[in-house]
Amino acid sequence: MSYLSQLDIFGQNAENFIGADDLKEKLAQGKKLRVKLGVDPTRPDLTFGHMVVFNKLRQFQDLGHQAVLIIGDYTASIGDPSGRSATRPVLSEAEVESNAATYLEQAFKVLNKEQTEIHYNSEWFSKMFFSDLLALARKMTVARMLERDDFAKRYAENTPISIVEFLYPLVQGYDSIMVESDVELGGSDQLFNNLVGRDLQRDAGQTGQAVITMPLLVGLDGVKKMSKSYGNYIAFNDTPKEMFGKIMSISDETMWEYYRLLMLYKPDRIEALKADHPMKCKKDLACLMVSKFFGVEAGRAELENFEKVFSKNGIPEVMPEFAWDSLTGADEDTLVNIMGATSLFPSKKEIRRLIEAGAVKRDGERIDDPFLGMQRPESPFVLQAGKRIFFRVLP
Fold it and tell me: Is 235 exposed, middle or buried (0-12, 13-18, 19+ CB in 10 A)?
């Protein structure tokens, strides 16, 4: 493939593409690019938000370039301040190690394992002396750091910024020197950090890396970026049922962004899809995404189950079952207590909210009284809460 065609693919969906001319020259010479992506294992699960940049890295792999995945086991102990209004909590070494172990298994659901070079940045940072850190810190001024929107906002609002957070962009940038990356990928909130790496490489006598940043994927709420902190995420490790159901809960507008950033559909293909009913498009998207992670058969099975439950007003063939005596020791108890004893809900407060909203049904009949008393049944019955939770209560 010509280098110009490759550049078009590199730029697909990108929010920023800095240094394209440098890449053009390298590609024209037939160079195999080293493409860096760093992830800090601050939580155990990757989400579809991560998938946006993993997709871009996979595109480079498919074109024959070298993916360089850096697990930021060292930087995770600092905490990336990007997009944050407060200092991140410090993770223990054990938490970081546990999270890092799951990251690679999840990453290879998208990336080609054989074409991925893996580094932990503790490889070099654990060997640094304090004098090395001081030398690195001299590469940056406070004024430059305050050009970052999040730092500037916190400074203006007198919100504390630790010196350690100021070091983070330098530490991330130093990774680029150590792996001699030609390209660094990241979300749009990583632009400042990635450009610091470009500058540090030049100062070290290397060619500054190109920087490609991707849009931040909107979460299930259709407003905020996808984040486990906001609870609006879809995780790589969700079950097929959870993944399918969560995708079906997004808005139509958000759906098209998922087609673009997760399925990599181009604008003309998305426009053609819009001729179909939005519900069909959403079911197709959910089926495709489940198939990506769990196989075609799993995708088809979840589609059939969804249509049975929601399109044909049926109930799932398989659902959790609870004996009455496992839920309560009395012959009569409140609906809230019965539902709470299943551990299917985060809290009794959430259960009351669902009941008052009319989202709870017994054998298809809506219940709106959270204090309703229930007696030991003579035969099994099904309780439904919201769109995705079904369970059967046995006598």
Answer: buried
Q: pLDDT tens digit string along 53-99? A: 999 999 999 999 999 999 988 877 665 554 444 445 667 778 888 88
Instruction: Tell me the C-alpha distance between 338 and 341, whole Å.
Output: 5
CB 33 within 8 A of CB 10: no
Per DSSP (E only), the strands in 76-196 are 116-120, 183-187
CA angle 353, 223, 281 (to 5 degrees): 90
Report how far residue 359's alpha carbon sits from residue 249's, in angstroms, rounded to the nearest whole number.
Answer: 15
Give the span between the Cα atoms of 97 and 95, in whole angstroms: 6
The set of long-range contacts for 290-298, using a CB threshold of 8 Å and a minimum separation of 24, is 290/240, 290/243, 290/244, 292/109, 293/109, 293/236, 293/240, 293/243, 294/240, 294/243, 298/240
Assigned token pair, 119: 């580094």
CA distance 28 to 308: 54
- 3-state class (DSSP) for residue 37: strand
pTM here is: 0.76
